[in-house]
Amino acid sequence: MQWPLFAILAGLLLYAIWIFNRFVSLRNRARNAWSDIDVQLKRRWELVPALVSTVRGYAAHEAATLERVTEARARAVEADTVEQRQITEQDVSKEMGRLLAVVEDYPDLKADELFHSLHEQLVVVEDHLQSARRYYNAVVRDFNTLLETFPHRLVAGGLGFRPRAFFRLDDPAQAAAPAVDLEGRT
Q1: 177 pLDDT exceeds 50?
Q2: Helix/strand/coil for 80
Q3: How far apart (Å, rounded) are the C-alpha atoms in residues 143 and 164?
Q4: Which domain holds residue 62?
Q5: How many structural domains is the chain composed of?
Q6: What is the spatial distance between Cα 37 and Cα 133, in angstroms, rounded to a whole number?
């Protein structure tokens, strides 16, 4: 009589250990994926002042646009949580879009080698950021799905695992790299 009971308890214990390890693995993958997003955001933030400075040299009277970009970047750098970062990054994307729209009015700026190089770097960073965001959201989806399914839900709450937030942009156009026609084609 004790042997089957012992086998059942051992099986439940092994299952609980497996569930715990699965949650830890997904949580760590999500943290790593967030770190990848953070690296790409920091690369973008490093490009913003150089872009603003380059545009300022050609379009000094666009001071309001340049100031909004700088302020949005400053707010993004200070954001701590996924939710705060999401909101501030939407602002950065919107203001960068406005800045790059200003560039369209300045053919000399579009032809500037430094601006061209910075813009190419920005496009690469935006592509990497989009990939990192997709991977992070996929890991968060897997984590949250595991968290919400039975019987994992019974174990997860007791172990302190909570749902993670997705990193979303409200406007899908903001998720894409800003486009500027540097060749003057329409």
Answers
A1: no
A2: coil
A3: 8
A4: 2-175
A5: 1
A6: 6
